[in-house]
């Protein structure tokens, strides 16, 4: 499968559609089961606050995966993602209120190479705070 976004249709400055993903405590439980990361800071308010966090936080890799999902949704092909880098800036605080948190992903194409690869610069926020820093994806366009 190749990306449905064609290199000929993309230029530096092209913006990806903004995507917002809800993250609930139930999502953290499901992610813990899938990943094997049962660190109590991802489910126990008591433990999270004892170690100095403001509350239960989402797994960093879950946050990273949501941002990657926004990129692959744009390309139309998960295999189009050929390189991906982030730095974790701030944690995503997930309150136990039935609503949880939201992670918002915005992206802009920073460059398109002659090889059909595009660098996508991402801005990932939750609660108004930037949660991933220096987030960049390289995708192979169709």
TrEMBL record:
One of its GO terms (molecular function) is fatty acid synthase activity. Coiled coil: none annotated. Residues 17-121 form the MaoC-like domain. GO terms for cellular component: fatty acid synthase complex. One of its GO terms (biological process) is fatty acid biosynthetic process. PANTHER family: (3R)-HYDROXYACYL-ACP DEHYDRATASE SUBUNIT HADB, 3-HYDROXYACYL-THIOESTER DEHYDRATASE HTDX-RELATED. Belongs to the enoyl-CoA hydratase/isomerase family. This is Acyl dehydratase. The lineage of its organism: Bacteria, Bacillati, Actinomycetota, Actinomycetes, Geodermatophilales.
């Amino acid at each position: 499968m190749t990306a449905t976004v064609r290199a000929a249709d993309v230029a530096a400055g092209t913006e990806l559609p903004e995507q917002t993903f809800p993250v609930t405590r139930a999502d953290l439980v499901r992610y813990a089961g899938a990943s094997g990361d049962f660190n109590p800071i991802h489910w126990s308010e008591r433990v999270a606050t004892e170690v100095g966090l403001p509350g239960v936080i989402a797994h960093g890799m879950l946050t990273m995966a949501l941002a990657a999902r926004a990129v692959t949704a744009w390309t139309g092909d998960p295999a189009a993602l050929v390189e991906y880098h982030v730095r974790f800036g701030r944690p995503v605080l997930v309150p136990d209120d039935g609503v949880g948190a939201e992670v918002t992903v915005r992206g802009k194409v920073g460059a398109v190479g002659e090889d059909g690869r595009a660098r996508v610069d991402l801005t990932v926020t939750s609660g108004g705070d930037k949660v991933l820093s220096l987030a960049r994806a390289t995708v192979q366009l169709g």
